[in-house]
Amino acid sequence: MKRVWQTYRTVLFCRFFANYFALILIPVIVASVLTHFFVVRLIERDAETLNNTVMRHFSEQIDDTFGALESNMVNMLSTASFKSVPRTSGDPAELTQRYESIHTLMQQMIKLDSEPLVYQSFLYFADEDLVIDGKTYNGKDEYFRERYPVKEADMPSYFGNFTGKKPMVFTKPHTVYERPPYTRDIVQAHENIAVLMSYPFNSGRPDVYLVVNLDLDKLRERLGMPEKWVMDTALVNSEGSALIASGSSELQRDAFAAMIGTMPEQELFLNDGRKALSYVKSRFNDGWYYVSMIDLPTLLKPARTIRMITLALLGMFIVVGGLVSYVLSRRLYNPIREIKTGLESQQLDDAPDLHGGNEFDMIKRFSRLLISKNKELAQTVNGMYPIVQEQFIVRVLFGEYRDSLSVGYYAKEISFHCNPVATATVLCIEIQFYASFADQLSETSKSFMLAELKENIRKLSPAMIWVCQTRSDQLACVLHHDENGHDDPAETADAIKQLLQQPYYKASIGIGKTVHSMAALHQSYKHAHSMLKYKSLHSGAEICSEQRAWKGRLSGDSFLSALEVNRILNMYKAGDSKSLLQSAFDLLDDGMRSHANARQVKNMAVDVLNTWTRAVESERNDFDISVYSEFFAAINRCVTWDELKQTFRDIHGVLFRTIEPSDRKRQFADILAYIQDHYNEELSIEYFAEQMNMSAGHFSRMFKEEVGEKYVEYIAKYRISKAKQFLLETDLKIDEIAERIGYWGRNSFIRNFRRYEGITPAKYRTMHQS
């Protein structure tokens, strides 16, 4: 009897386990397989994407560093004056000018040396025995012997760079010794890379070379990536040679060439079983590549973890299935009893007859309740159909569905009833808010206006008109024709026009051509949209057509003639700014009388503005490009003739304003006061020029006219006067005084003091204190 019971329990166990296997284990196995082949691969791709993102961000940072260095070098060479640096005939005035120029260049070199990666920079004069850096100037032999001693083995390749035009050239790495001047004791050795740029830029025989020596140790530190999976990062040229590497591993040229030839940018290239290569092309130099060596086990550690977890879960499900089958084989009816007990404990007000009956009846009634809840949810979803259907109409108008089969299929999917072969015409409505309301009305208010307008248009003929919003400022109306073809799109457009007579906006209606299928609606919409280019600048609603043309000018000719351009330029040269504005108004009035459309008038207005800016730029350089961009954008935003005229008044007031002499004197007085309060800070001439809407050159000329001396001279003299005050009234050291009055170093302060006072600061203090 016991053996029979055991056999029966075994049968029950096998049945339950078979059900468990079919219902749970098979999905778990399928899920495990899918996880292995899809989820794990997705994680691997995410890891590759993360590595690509890090590499791209890293390469952009390094490229930005090189780009900033290039900009600083170009700016330095562009603003520097080299004409008075070569040796003169010995005239004192010429010598003074030479020393002033050299001092100015040294100040600029000091500023360039402050860059994070710069070890030392200097100017190498090709035809002169002269080298200038931020601290001194010497002959070439003495400079490279004492100031910048290059390793003897590196000299031939290093000095071979000082020939021909150098737009921005990176030399090979070279070793530089650091030692006290005029000694042979080497304190330290640096491995540097030099960046050369010649001036004049386009000359094959340049006068001077700007040399910026980059500290390779700092560059390697910048090149290193903190991510754990990155073993090494290198800057590699197209031949596969590593220019700079942050780690100790060496990149093989064959591996890099194979990667470039077979793999696209940023994808992982397997170098061996545990390592991979990834590269990003430099935006700064087309011949450079940033290459990282990836530790694949570290990068793909999450994927391996998922695999192990998946296998562990699969094993756990098998064990749990066996235990559950064993328990169910002994307690067959316990789950049903537990479900019944749980349902009896539920208190549902909307289901009073849920309780009672056997277990099966109770579960069946509970299922009906779930179905009822599901229907309520379906009703909520049905409320979203109008939005989905309107979006479907938009996609048809944009030409995404161009055959009747696809139109009918997608319409059926969203329960949208339409005839794919019906005759229809599209009306395109453009809404442009007047300037007086555009800024006052919020986006929410504008959206409500458009929603109300759409509802009113539908009420004209609910069964014959579809309305949708194709853009934030455009609506499209699909007008369906009846079988007899009596519906006239022009009459419907007139009816809609009455709805568009609003004080807040101007509305333009374009009528498309009639098509004979839903799939061709995009052609009608395109034609209706093209009609909008014939809209006018009159307020109120209008129906656009091709009949409006500018009389008195050739068809399509909405630009100024050469005679009109010369007339405007002559007015500006004659100083008659009022006539400039009046001439623009005359052109606008001519366009209004000739019924020109908005596109023609705005083209003419843009041409007038172009002529004005050319006239202003011929004598002044006070405006930034962003100012001109805003002028053109303001013209494009104009909706009516009055708005366009007011825009020209505003632009005229900005471009041709005059600064009274009293205002200019007050502005320069404020600048002098600022210099006297902040003499110990960096005082950039570009800062003051921008404050007065001038170029740096124009500001410099105006400063000398108003103050009586050059901008640089005024600052230098004021700082020397403050230095004399510190020398006599305090016990501060020379270095402290130099720092307090805004000099970067002791030597430059002493040179300037001697230039203006004839003696050194220390001797000045001794003479006056004694």
What does this 3D model show about the protein?
With 770 residues, the chain is an alpha+beta fold. Helices cover 56% and strands 13% of the residues. The strands form three sheets. Strands 1, 2, 3, 4, 5, 6 and 7 form a seven-stranded antiparallel β-sheet that branches. It has a five-stranded antiparallel β-sheet with strand order 9-8-12-11-10.
Secondary structure topology:
Layout: H1 2-79, H2 92-113, E1 118-125, E2 131-133, E3 137-138, H3 140-147, H4 155-159, E4 169-170, E5 174-178, E6 188-199, E7 208-215, H5 216-223, E8 230-237, E9 242-245, H6 253-262, E10 269-270, E11 275-281, E12 288-295, H7 296-299, H8 301-330, H9 334-344, H10 359-382, H11 385-397, H12 404-413, E13 424-433, H13 435-438, H14 443-460, E14 465-471, E15 474-480, H15 489-499, E16 505-511, H16 521-531, E17 542-544, H17 562-573, H18 577-593, H19 598-619, H20 625-637, H21 641-655, H22 661-677, H23 685-691, H24 696-707, H25 711-729, H26 734-740, H27 746-757, H28 761-769
Parallel strand pairs: 16-17
Antiparallel strand pairs: 1-2, 1-7, 2-3, 4-6, 5-6, 6-7, 8-9, 8-12, 10-11, 11-12, 13-15, 13-16, 14-15
Helix pairs in contact: 1-8, 9-10, 17-19, 18-19, 18-21, 19-20, 23-24, 25-28
Salient structural properties:
flat, 770 residues, disordered N terminus, five-stranded antiparallel β-sheet, alpha+beta, seven-stranded antiparallel β-sheet, single chain
Strand composition percent: 5-15%
**What is the count of helical runs?**
28
Structure classification? alpha+beta
Uncertain stretches of 5 or more adjacent residues: 1-8
Helix share, percent: 55-70%
Give the number of DSSP strands. 17
